[in-house]
From TrEMBL:
Source species: Pradoshia eiseniae
A Pfam short name: ABC2_membrane_4
Keywords: Membrane, Transmembrane, Transmembrane helix
Protein's recorded name: ABC transporter permease
Superkingdom of source: Bacteria
Transmembrane intervals: 20-37, 49-73, 94-121, 141-162, 169-187, 224-247
Length: 253
């Protein structure tokens, strides 16, 4: 499994679009730093305020992850290389898992890069002013990252499932992006309409920060345990469908 992960990482690292994707968040961080410097002239800003603004842009990583999840498996079918890969003494389940895990590592790298770089830029521009007095704000930022990673993990797993079923990268990416935008919209609409069935929606449960620091859940009946259970159900369904279609059916290009 380790050798498979290393190989998938190597192949992913050679992808020009993936290489460029690692510049997206640094560019956003630098542009927002320029904007935030102007804002500080009017309001008293500090490093944590700046990091909080960066944390609100983490959905961008979800979109980047959708691009990788939608193509890492389907491209093997579209390029005709899937049969060559399956000649090797590896199981289909192991191949499916190694590619999915590579996507998750890709997300993790982007989240770590964003967090470290935003803290470095924030410290360089504003120092540690306000850090001690606003320790709870740092905890809130960490929760924002946890929420962002949870959303990204779930949506890329969904996109990966679509890719395994339909074997088409462009279609998988389109469906993944539509699900991300539409899912968030559906959650907001169900909340406004006070439709209790909305508690079962994926994106009503990905916001883990709604249970901390006095925040109010999307629905009063919801709890952290409930949300984790719903997320677990969605994840098992997404990955289970991907496993069934990839492992059980005949490999055809």
């Amino acid at each position: 499994m380790i050798s498979m992960l290393v190989n998938e990482h190597y192949r992913l690292a050679r992808n020009r679009l993936v290489q460029l994707s690692f510049l997206v968040m640094p560019v956003i961080i630098c542009l927002l730093a320029i904007f935030f410097l102007d804002l500080v002239k009017v309001n008293n800003g500090n490093m944590l305020n700046y990091m909080s603004i960066i944390a609100s842009t983490l959905v961008v990583i979800s979109f980047l992850g959708i691009g990788v999840a939608g193509t890492i498996l389907s491209n093997e079918f579209q390029n005709g290389t899937i049969k060559l890969i399956m000649v090797r003494p590896i199981s289909r389940a192991a191949l499916l898992f190694s590619k999915w895990l590579t996507v998750i590592f890709y997300l993790l790298y982007l989240f770590i890069l964003t967090f470290v770089l935003s803290m470095a830029v924030g410290t360089l521009l504003f120092g540690f002013e306000g850090f001690g007095a606003n320790g709870h704000m740092f905890g809130s930022i960490l929760l924002n990252y946890a929420t962002g990673f949870t959303e990204a993990l779930m949506i890329v797993t969904f996109t990966y499932m679509v890719s395994a079923v339909f074997k088409n990268g462009a279609f998988s990416i389109g469906v993944g992006m539509a699900a991300l935008v539409g899912g968030k919209l559906a959650t907001e609409v169900s909340r406004l309409l006070e439709w209790k069935g909305g508690m079962m929606l994926l994106f009503a449960n990905t916001k883990l920060d709604q249970y901390f620091f006095g925040n109010k859940p999307v629905y009063d009946e919801m709890s952290l345990t409930f949300s984790l259970a719903i997320l677990g159900f969605h994840f098992c369904f997404f990955y289970g469908v991907a496993w069934w279609f990839f492992v059980k059916r005949d490999i055809s290009v």
